[in-house]
Amino acid sequence: GRAPTLSTATSSILSTTRSQEITMIRRIPTFFLLIWTLAASIAVVDAFLPVGTSRTQSSSSWGSATRRMAAPEKSTTNGDAAPVDMSNVGFVLLAGGTGSRMKANMPKQFLELKGVPVLHHSLDLFLNQLPAMCEAKGVSGPPVVVLVMDPKYHPDYQPIVDKYEGRLHFALPGEERQGSVENGLSKLVEVSEGGCEYVAVHDSARPLVTPTEIEQVVADAKGYGAAVLGVPSKSTIKESEDGTLVLRTIPRARLWEVHTPQVIKIDTLQRGFAKVEAENLEVTDDVSIVEALGEPVKLTLGEYTNLKITTPEDMDVAGAILDDRGAKPVDMMASLT
Predict the structure, then answer these.
(1) How far is it, in rounded angstroms, from Cα 126 to Cα 130?
(2) What is the dihedral of CA 38, 43, 48, 54, to 10 degrees?
């Protein structure tokens, strides 16, 4: 065939060059994306390394940091096994607090959240939603719920107690949380006549816990004897002795923020209460009593949305979460009519 002309050869060269340029241009975003991803990964690893630790200290630092960076595994006790039977689990719902930080004219559990009192979200969960979930899965729901509440509010809630006859009972609050839990536990043991082996203690100020979270923490408690819902801490925590100067920074990878319900074998909690009283120990939550016995407590990975209503701003956040879920809160009083 005829040899290509100069113009044809030039066009071929230019076409090849242009094609290579286009290929390089297309690769540039990918290159910079890889660089950005690597930089971001290094920054995240740095955030999880203990203070003062250098990435160049050893390759083991990288490995341990990467393991810490990975999201904690969901509870595996239940896994894909059969649904959790709750026929031997009683619930103690704490609603005796004053809610002083809410700056309201009534305790926070009675303030309205999406049109119904905060307390009603938990009552609906334990008396309606949770039993319905269990029934749909072919297992039994919790037989008893004990509502720890100031007696001056008992007349207001007596109609609900009457509606759920035998399933909902009052108990009196103590001076502190520990006293309220003891009173609630005593009432649970009394009304269940020994039929409950586990107690799940829940703060009414946490109205956003889900049935799935409850199922998982109950499953873990049945496997370990005690379990608590919680999430890894997202904040950097500083320790101080005087509230003015920083003593040290506590490695975040070891810190968990615990929620409720906290589920414990009843005989374990009873032994723990006896030890706390005999040795005058200070405990801040229910599973701390189990810790005082030297017995294991399983951390059950929960949801960050299981927040505690403490300040007015928390009400706005909780409302937004309920909106996002498409939830339809139930007024337990209105449902009586």
Answers:
(1) 5
(2) 90
Q: Is the pTM of this model over 0.85?
A: no
Q: Is 96 exposed, middle or buried (0-12, 13-18, 19+ CB in 10 A)?
A: buried
Residues 6+ apart with CB under 8 A from 69: 44, 45, 48
Q: 85 near 65, Cβ under 8 Å?
A: no
Render pLDDT for 269-321 as a digit per residue (tens, 0 to 9): 999 999 999 999 988 899 999 999 999 999 999 999 999 999 999 999 999 99
Mean pLDDT confidence for 241-260: 95
Cα dihedral 207, 209, 211, 216 sign: negative
Q: Among all chains, which residue has been given the structure tokens 């009196």?
A: 172
Token output for 23: 């290929």
Highest mean pLDDT among 16-20, 95-99, 231-235: 231-235
Q: What confidence score (pLDDT) does residue 61 get? A: 35
Cβ within 8 Å of residue 31, ≥6 positions away? none
Give the separation between CA 299 and CA 199, rounded to whole angstroms: 16
Cα gap 243→120, rounded to integer Å: 38
